[in-house]
Amino acid sequence: MKNKNFIGFILCAALFLAGFMLHGNLSLYFNVSGLFIVCGGTVCASLISFRFEQIQIVTKVLLAAYKKPIKKETEIINILIDLSIRSRIEGILSLQNEENETTILFLRRALGCLVDGYSIDQIRDILNTEMYFFKLRREDSERVVRSIADYFPAFGIMGSVVGLITMLGGIGDTSVILKAIPIALTSTLYGLLFANFFFLPFAATIKERTNQELLLQKIILEGVIAINSEMNPVILKTKLESFLTPSERASEFVSYTKLKDRFNIAKQKAEQQTLKDI
To answer: Is 266 exposed, middle or buried (0-12, 13-18, 19+ CB in 10 A)?
Structure first.
């Protein structure tokens, strides 16, 4: 998790807990029976709904999303420009070493297609297929997390029903009613808490991470195709910077002087003035 996200999480969690403590004892919100009903029911429903291997994959995706930093778009663009310059100077086969050294799986696969001499259409088709199924796999992981988030409130209500039944069964016995009330109330609280404080944000994290990685893959796709077509590195840089926001682009605006020199604006104005004088 990024430092700013972690600090924000700590501050918000502190404010959240402070809201519980201002008008009561924090221990009042802890009930083992309600916790077992909500968590146990959700785990059982998840194991019935999804394969255990699929849950393991979702766990790995979440851990990677919070632990492994993702490269920035500017870093990928710089890598591609360096590769473009090397291929123009030393040839495409010089990228063989870079293919083995790179730590980006998608870029390694793209360079493998490039070194093996695939055509532009073949490279585009292979990498687009890779991106398509990568997106499907991530959407499937997000769907699993959102489904688990939906289970929590449902079992929270179920715990509340259990508490109410216990209360009705203990009419006339104050001690039974006092024991059943915390189960009825805390179960709903736990269901809403786990769903909205943890699993829905987990699903949003997977979606955001997926969008970021798809953008990087699109940049790599266009960059590798441009390298295969021997595009000028300067033109390649201009093209790839189109993926960036204006604030992230390192290039400066072309001055009016350069524009005049490039398009002979001053000369054209002089010719137009001469025609008017005539």
So the answer is: exposed
C-alpha–C-alpha distance, residues 91 and 213, integer Å: 29
The alpha carbon of 226 is separated from its chain's Cα centroid by a whole number of angstroms, namely 26
Q: How far is CA 208 from CA 60, 63, 103, 138, 205, in A?
A: 16, 14, 21, 10, 5
- The answer, yes or no, to whether residue 100 has pLDDT greater than 70, is no
Q: Which residues contact 130 (CB under 8 A, 6 or more apart)?
A: 106, 109, 217
Tens digit of pLDDT for each residue in 58-93?
A: 999 999 988 888 888 888 888 888 888 887 777 776
Using an 8 Å Cβ cutoff, are 161 and 185 in contact?
no
CA–CA gap between residue 38 and residue 157 (Å, rounded): 9
Between CA 223 and CA 237 the distance in angstroms is 9
Q: Which of 197, 190, 269, 219 is closest to 84 using CA atoms? A: 219
pLDDT tens sequence across 166-224: 777 767 666 766 677 777 788 898 999 999 989 999 999 999 999 999 999 999 999 99
Question: Half-sphere exposure (CA, 13 Å, Cβ side) for 141?
Answer: 25
Mean pLDDT of 118-139: 94
CA of 152: how far to CAs of 44, 139, 210, in Å? 11, 20, 25
Give the tens place of pLDDT for each residue, 215-274.
999 999 999 999 888 888 888 888 888 888 877 776 554 444 554 565 554 454 445 554
Which residue ranges make up each domain of the chain? 31-244
Distances (CA, A) of 141 to 49, 71, 144, 212, 227: 13, 22, 5, 16, 34
Expressed in angstroms, the distance from the first to the final Cα of the chain is: 72
Q: How far apart are CA 219 and CA 57, in angstroms?
A: 26
Give the mean pLDDT of 13-39. Answer: 78
